[in-house]
Write a structure and sequence with these properties.
Blueprint: H1 3-6, E1 11-15, H2 20-29, E2 34-39, E3 58-62, H3 82-85, E4 89-92, H4 99-104, H5 106-127, E5 130-136, H6 164-183, E6 188-193, E7 196-197, H7 208-217, E8 222-225, E9 231-232, E10 235-236, H8 237-249, E11 254-258, E12 264-265, H9 266-277, E13 283-286, H10 301-307, H11 315-327, H12 330-338
Parallel strand pairs: 1-2, 1-4, 2-3, 4-5, 5-6, 6-11, 7-10, 8-13
Antiparallel strand pairs: 9-12
């Protein structure tokens, strides 16, 4: 009898589950699965999972996955019968993702992509679980022309530059996942995630939307690092979670871009944020830190055709939700302002 036949609810492991995207993913999964969340809190936040901690179908393990973990021996997981019923799905979102964070934690970022990914893959092999790896658009490097990135593009990257701990770490992790799939009989899929925003982002993590929102809500001039005409794409977090869920259920697996295809300048985003926040503030530019890079757009034809996925939430609606979230968390805003 298979693990799937024994369970009323399948067991799902989410690494990085106290992070921005990971906690939103756990919110959805816990509706129909038993969710085991693992996070070291290097960059994740307990407040992201406060409500989930009260849910009997959610268990949290504080653990740094650069060290192995034996789920069978943990008494807190006995209620999920992991020793006998195993794990059916593994989502790997364990990694610092904002430029400011991985620039502060370069060795930890590299070790998470190497050691933590390997330990999670070994868990998936042990339980014959499906495996989804959250990769990044950063594996493509900076755009060399105006064409969107498709999944066949190999990338244009400085392997030892200021972003290399993240870019090269993610590229290595993709190779590790792919080779486990080919040589260990594992069912794997890789999501190359493009710029994502929404509630629970850290306001001081160095990304354009949280930076601009925190300035707007604390009545400071809106600072754009680099040029106001630089552009990026912006995918709301609920759309990204929907893409991850659909990709996990895609039996063929493979590598898929997930993101918005609409390129908007930072000036356009800043103007929309001031409008939605109902403030009138000056714009200013500042030199971009070395770890920031020009952004490209995804080609999502593959995921649209194979999974029927494309982003649905307009930027204005997503920003309105995000601003409302941070207004409701004034303490977070105050802390973010104090850290500047």
């Amino acid at each position: 009898m298979s693990y799937h036949q024994l369970l009323d609810r399948q067991n799902v492991l989410v690494s990085g589950g106290a992070g921005f995207i990971g906690s939103h993913l756990a919110d959805e999964l816990v509706k129909t699965y038993n969710v085991i969340c693992i996070d070291s809190f290097i960059t994740g936040q307990e407040e992201n999972i406060d409500l989930l901690l009260q849910n009997p179908n959610f268990k949290f393990l504080r653990h740094d996955l650069v060290e192995p973990i034996d789920l069978d021996k943990l008494p807190e997981l006995a209620v999920f019968k992991v020793k006998h019923q195993g794990i059916q799905e593994v989502y790997n979102l364990a990694c610092p993702t904002s430029p400011r964070e991985y620039n502060r934690l370069p060795i930890e970022t590299l070790r998470t992509n190497a050691d933590a990914t390997r330990h999670l893959l070994d868990i998936a092999v042990k339980y014959k679980a499906k495996f989804l790896h959250a990769s990044t658009s950063s594996i493509y490097g900076e755009p060399r022309d105006k064409n969107p990135f498709n999944e066949d593009y190999w990338g244009y990257i400085d392997p030892v530059g200021p972003r290399s701990c993240y870019n090269e770490g993610k590229r290595f992790a993709e190779s590790l996942v792919t080779n486990y799939g080919m040589h260990r009989g594992l069912s794997v899929r890789i999501a190359r995630i493009f710029n994502t925003y929404g509630p629970r982002m850290k306001l001081n993590d160095g990304r354009v939307i949280p930076d601009l929102i925190s300035h707007a809500l604390t009545n400071q001039p809106l600072t754009i690092y680099g040029s106001a005409e630089d552009a990026s794409t912006f995918c709301y977090v609920s759309d990204m979670v929907d893409g991850l869920l659909k990709l996990m259920q895609h039996e063929v697996g493979g590598i898929f871009n997930l993101g918005s295809t609409e390129m908007l300048t930072y000036r356009q985003v800043a103007e929309l944020i001031t409008k939605l926040a109902d403030v009138e503030l000056a714009f200013e530019t500042a030199p971009a830190p070395a770890y920031l890079a020009r952004q490209g757009a995804p080609d999502i034809a593959k995921v649209r055709e194979s999974l029927g996925w494309f982003p649905l939430v307009p930027l204005e609606d997503g920003l309105r939700n995000t601003i409302a979230y941070f207004r409701a968390h004034e303490r977070v805003l105050g802390m973010a302002a104090d850290k500047r």
